[in-house]
Known about the structure:
alpha+beta; Archaeosine Trna-guanine Transglycosylase, Chain: A, domain 4; five-stranded mixed β-barrel
Amino acid sequence: MNDTIMNVPLFPLNSIVLPKGRIPLQLFEPRYIDMLSRCMREDRGFVVVLLREGAETASKAAFYDIGTYVRIIDFQQLDNGLLGITVEGERKVSVVRSWQQDDGLNLGDVECLLTEAESPVPEHYHELPSVLRALFRHPVVGDLGMEVNYEDARDVGWRLTELLPLDKQEKQRLAELQDPLERLDRLQELLEALEQN
């Protein structure tokens, strides 16, 4: 993937996905079925951005400008007749400019953010990998088939950001951080707050 990608489809969601993370999606709107066909045909991905306000199915939606470029790794027809896909995050990106096609599909020029530096999980954050292991025992999470390096601060921070029950503004703040240790520090604070409630 180049440093600048022109004309990438944007997919606003109420969920977040980060590099190496996976998320299942159900597609039923024509704009997204067309997007999927084009992505498969051209062997390219799209960018998942978190909704700032509005619904996932709304024709107009406000979204954050830091998201994740994802690729489709699996798709199938679901029992409910909808098309199900699983996407995996590749790189965090910044949406430099966005616009909407006539069919309601959001497009944007995006720029790749610097890849976060690999970093071991410091000893004083030993509880965070344990929490993540517990979350991965949940069948829905396990079914996604994600691989996690529990000793890499990036992996631990990214997966906890996706999986913990935090409000979406907090998830976005964590996603936008470029320092894995700063993210772990904030996650530790948030976990302590969750435990006290």
